[in-house]
Amino acid sequence: MGQQPKVLMPEQSPQHRLGYVIRELRSARGLSMRDLAARTFVSHAKVQRWENGARPPKDQAEAELIDRALDAGGAIVELWQEMRGVSGTSHVSDPAPHVSDTALGLATPLSQAAASDGEGAFVPRRLDDGTVVLVAFDRRALLRAGVGISAAAVAGLSAPAGAVISAADDPFGFAKRATENWAGLRLSRPFPDFGVDWQVLLPGGRSMLGSQLSLQIHPARIAGSRVIASIPDQRRAEEFLARPHRSLMVGAVNTEDVSRFYALDGRSARSKLVKNGGVYEVAAPAAYELDDLTYGILWAVSNWDDALQADDQALAEARSDLKAYERLSASAVSREAAPGLNSVAHMWLGSDFCARHILRTLPDLPALPAFWTREQRGEEASAWLFFDHKFPYLRETTKALGSKSTRAFCVPEDVVRSSPRYERILMFLAVALMESLGIHAQFTADPAYEAVEGFVVAPDKEAVIANWVRGDGMWHVDLTARSSVVREFTIAARDVDADSLTAAPTAAGRLRALAQYLDLPWSWLIQRCGQLARYGTSGLIQSRSRLVSPAGIDAACAYVASLPADH
User: Fold this and answer.
1) Residue 248 pairs with which residues in a beta bridge?
2) Overall average pLDDT of the 77-93 stretch
């Protein structure tokens, strides 16, 4: 029979508190004492002494080593620092002066409950104002034990805005890199983590609602066109990948003291986890490096996909209910016609209805029409790349016309300046998708045209109105020969055609001019799109909603990759 673990009373002393937390975290991670000894390069006996309070970690470096091995998010280091600031050893009766009476009062019942069933533990956490609270948790849930504080502020669940993340909490430098590169991105480390290294909150937009995904990060190496991540804990990786929520497996490659990160969708990673000489590995294309291109795709797909999936059944019912409007040549439908749906679902309904309205009316137009679209930012434009009906709609309109057409955009300079780079890339790719089908894109920066509705005009004869972007309702459609309306649309289309910012005789020339206007590096776009086109984007992130498709983004990347680069 092995020696029974010593019963520790965490409130008795900082040493006991530290030993207790080390033991509980080790057990929660499913590690034996020998496992922890191997991870920290010490003997089994030394781990025993840490845990029974007989001999705590000798210095902060040793405490940091334990903290990293247990993925404790700095809790072990804080406890060690608390212990070093208190005189005496195992029979200290007075509380540490910086621990509040409320927190200390919670210690006895929590520790007694923990000792009785082995399922509980508590960890002191210091808030921004210096107050220390005791956080109680069990293996299934984390319970807040403080008073008047948010759950996210306890136990390092969420770093406050502007907080500096320590190297111990961010061993690969991922959080530092991500938050510096992409404004609005929020990261937190769950505690206990249950296999999750970082919980990521992706920002929303003017209509997007924001999204959430989980990350697990592992050291990786480059092998030709692949990145191979080494998985030290197979069970932890399998537990992480088995969950149905959106997740990414991230490989961190350190070269010349600079870390580069490569992402693989969790569902893709499940089938790629293989054993290689006793070590489990996952391979991903080097094309999936996290940069403004791949982040933009992750941001858009996650936002569209989560919102549409959340309203999937209600949206399908609303679409069926609204079919009666298809019998009308004109309609303006408010969002109240589909109550309860989120803003993205309303956008999808409007986009889908406008696309079908144009396809119904297009054959009856008396002359080759010009198109006008209201998208100004990557958020709106990415619908062309990801909504399941948009790419087929573009192909069908091209087929119906039987010749090349024009599509005009109004994107003022202040919109470009205020748009993050990843959104500008999405705008560029949406236009590239159109150019790949023979649609000549034209641009004006004149803000006087911002209020013009989306239209298709047979110059001086007839016009189709089809607007769902930045409108007062879900959509406004019409088929009209009113002279004042037709004249307004004809003049707008001719003005932009005569003085387009991207005027050029070839698609490559127009796209190069657009890249320059959006302040995007031309050769980099071609290179990165070529890398991504080789593998497709589904391995980077897979949609869950049937209304989101990678067909548009993959076609756009393939087309950009075919364009001539600068030499």
Assistant:
1) 215, 265
2) 62
Nearest CA to 244 among 283, 214, 216, 211?
A: 214
The DSSP line for 350-411 is HHHHHHHHHHHHGGG-SS--EEE----SHHHHHHHHHBTTHHHHHHHHHHHH-S-EEEEEE-
**What is the amino acid identity at position 31?**
L
Mean pLDDT of 520-541: 96
Question: What totals of helices (H) and strands (E) does the chain contain, helices first?
Answer: 20, 18
Nearest one of 553, 261, 529 to 385, comparing CA atoms: 553
Residue pair 550/543 in contact (Cβ under 8 Å)? The answer is yes
Instruction: Tell me how far apart the alpha carbons of residues 217 and 181 are, in angstroms, rounded to a whole number.
Output: 18
Alpha carbon separation from 332 to 300, 349, 369, 371, 470 (Å, rounded): 28, 13, 23, 20, 14
Q: In what order do the strands lie in the sheet with 132-138?
A: 120-126, 132-138, 142-143
Instruction: Give the single-character DSSP code of 468.
Output: -
Q: How confident is the model over 359-404, as pLDDT tens digits?
A: 999 998 999 999 999 999 999 999 999 999 999 999 999 999 987 8
- Is the per-residue pLDDT at 156 higher than 50? no
Quick one: pLDDT at residue 191?
78
| Two tokens, residue 167 | 């190297």
Question: Could you give the CA distance from residue 252 to residue 264 in angstroms, rounded to a whole number?
Answer: 12
Strands 142-143 and 132-138: antiparallel
- By CB neighbour count within 10 A (0-12 exposed, 13-18 middle, 19+ buried), where does 418 fall? exposed
Task: Residue 142: count other Cβ atoms within 10 Å of its Cβ.
Answer: 17
Amino acid at 145: A
Given this model, what pLDDT does residue 512 score?
97
pLDDT at 450 over 70: yes
**Dihedral angle of Cα 526, 527, 528, 532, to the nearest 10 degrees:** 90
What 3-state DSSP class applies to 566?
coil
The sign of the torsion formed by the CA atoms of 237, 242, 243, 247 equals positive
What does residue 343 show for φ and ψ, rounded to 5 degrees? -65, -35
- At residue 6, the pLDDT reads 52
Query: What are the pLDDT digits (tens) for 159-200?
Result: 444 455 667 778 889 999 999 999 999 998 887 788 899 999
Q: Which residues lie below 8 Å from residue 251, measured CB to CB, with a gap of 6+? A: 217, 218, 219, 220, 227, 228, 229, 261, 262, 264, 282, 284
Place of tokens 């391995």: 539
**Whole-number Å distance between alpha carbons of 519 and 563:** 18
Round to whole Å and give the CA distance between 323 and 314: 14
